[in-house]
Design goal:
There is one protein chain. It is built from no helices and 11 strands. It has about 120 residues and is an all-beta fold.
Length: about 120
């Protein structure tokens, strides 16, 4: 079975940091482009950032640029999201997703279960 399990969330104060991980299993992780999304209460899900299958390209939403860093370890089938200088507006459930690098345009192939991040002022 395909599984994407995000973990590492928690509660921190503004200015703090967290590192999220997303453990993948059941598919060829190293062939998949990976993304992080988040959804705050009462808001639509939004894109956070992405990393190419080989880790050589990353892209971030402007709201997290220069604060968040996405990385991956294909040997460990794990995706990471390092979040620094956290702000209350970063409070959300964070999800990881995967899409095959040769896949057709469209949404992710797989969605993971989210992890809650809460930032207090």
């Amino acid at each position: 079975d395909v599984q994407l399990q995000a973990f590492g969330g928690g509660s921190v104060q503004s200015g703090g940091y967290l590192r999220l991980s997303c453990a993948a299993s059941g598919f060829s992780f190293s062939s998949y482009d990976m993304k992080w999304f988040r959804q705050a209460p009462g808001k639509e899900r939004e894109f956070v950032g992405e990393i190419a299958w080989n880790g050589k390209l990353t892209y971030y939403d402007d709201s997290v640029l220069d604060r968040f860093t996405i990385s991956r370890d294909n040997a460990k089938n794990t995706l990471y999201l390092q979040m620094n200088s956290l702000k209350p507006e970063d409070t959300a459930v964070y999800y990881c997703t995967g899409k095959h690098r040769l896949g057709v345009a469209g949404g992710p192939d797989y969605w993971g279960q989210g992890t809650q991040v809460t930032v207090s002022s």
